[in-house]
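Quick question about two entries, pasted in order.
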Amino acid sequence: MDATVNAANVKCDLARETLRTCGSLRLKTNGWSMLPLIWPGDVIVLESSQGSQVMAGDIVVFRHESRFVAHRVIERHSKAATEWVVTQGDALATPDAPIRPHQILGKVSSVLRNGRCYDAKHSLRRSERGLATFLRRSQRAARAMARVHVVLHKIRKSS
């Protein structure tokens, strides 16, 4: 078995076990797909949640290949005995491939940034929606904003 796949499996198993025993887990983020709500370096608080309990607007964490992904639920589908969930990053132009509810690790309840705690709300404020729409149209702008944020965070930490 590939070492990367094995490490990802161990990480996922450890996260699932921590959620099962403790009910919550904190994960540091490094992507830009959930801008402007979640920035690189933020810590998300993940609460244990069954995939069947999530609804449109919730931010969920699931595993995609060898990494965890935190994206917003945009649709739930149920057909006969089959259920699936469609997610999408707020700053991404297209939705993710559908996932099964059992693939969901948990639901994001809050975001920790610079010593402050923010609610992982079901919907963005008007200004945040406008920024997310702009970022969806320009991934270059989203990446640039994320890089500037990381640099500013490093400067703040060093001073």
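Here is the second entry:
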Amino acid sequence: MKVAIGCDPNAAQMKTAVIQLLEDNGYDYCDFGSDDPVYAKTALKVAEAVASRTFERGILFCGTGIGMALSANKVPGAYAVVCSDAYSVERSILSNNANILTFGSQTHGLGWAKKEILHWLELQYEAGGPSQEKIDGIYAIEKSFLK
């Protein structure tokens, strides 16, 4: 699996630790940076890489994860979520087919984030399953705005 990763300067330390985690666990990744204080620019790069299917998943970090999620979700085909508990991380894939996970370096502990990232990367959405109608509804909304 190929993972796109990026952050703003506030979260560079967390991103560096997660990059080591990805390397230690055999994931291919591309670091889209951490120097730009305008996190929307980094979110755009990662979201475009994931939406184009060049990368299967993306991980973004800022102070809370909220700004990165909002920014990434402006790109059609990017489905970013910020999660604060293990159940939401799991359901982000299994029920919602999210392809970008965002974290806050000031709101999430590094140990927890690393554990949840590994779990999230192992999960796969089951097309045609019980959540398919819900996912199709999300895609239909997006498509209606792309006309």
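Reply: The chain has one domain: 2-145. The two ends are 32 Å apart (CA to CA). Hope that helps.
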